[in-house]
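Researcher: We're reviewing a set of sequences before deciding which ones to prioritize for further study. For each one, I'd like a predicted 3D structure that I can look through quickly. This is Peptidase S1 domain-containing protein. If possible, include the structure in token form so it fits the rest of the review sheet.
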Amino acid sequence: MKAILPLALLFSAASALLPTSCPCGLTNKGRIVGGREAKKNEFPLIAALVFVGDPEDPQAFCGATILTPYHALTAAHCTQGQVLENIEYISLLVGAHDVTNVDSRAQWVPVERFHDHENYSELDSNGIPHINDVSLVVLKEEIRFNVNVGPACLPTEELELERQYVNAMGWGLTATGGEGSNVLRQVNLQVIAYKTCNSLFKLNPNRSQLCTFGKNKDTCRGDSGGPLVWLDPETNRLTLIALVSYGSKNCGARPSVNTDVSHYLNWIQTAISESGKPGTTCQKMNATAS
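Model: Here's the predicted structure for Peptidase S1 domain-containing protein, in token form for your review sheet.
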């Protein structure tokens, strides 16, 4: 599947968009552009993992993406060590814009557990970092979907998005060595060729990772686990294509490596079905299914 369609086809398809199996990938703004603060609740699919041990000073430490009322997706490296040891103090914050000034539109949902990929490795025997960097967040309580809070669409197959632009978002550092952003920020990044990225980083040979780059624009520490989404022209909905995994110490100097969500579609469905919580993900329906 190609991300860009001929202009004439886009116009002809405007009145015949493919449906999704349930409402997903919605925005509260018609178009998305890069390098700026997001509008309040512009992206209902975004969530933050927050340490709430001190109610007066909650600390957002990673991003996540809403999949169902009881499930979200993040990076497995976000759930290790002290996070796992203090899981009773971890909540998923949804519907928020400023994580230091949370208003009534936001919801705090306690995390029950993390289901990390069983083959996640911080550094495997071949020296490849963050293999299978994906984790399902299982929630104790239900997320209440509304105009400000809702799920992303999942892809139905592997997408050919090389040289296409995708949208990343999060509350991470705004500059190398700087501080995290209190407000949600978003940026457009270009998907670069696997071969190019593999010459800079040692990637998984099964191509379960994809790389993005933007000149002087990038995800950074604190954005980990957050979504990279693509506006599917066949549905006009945001599809989750990757999770922020890792990059260079100097954010924006080199490409970033992300977990390719399409590689884990079966794993996601199995993890949800085994979670003990109800939930159905949303995705594009083909013409015959509609």
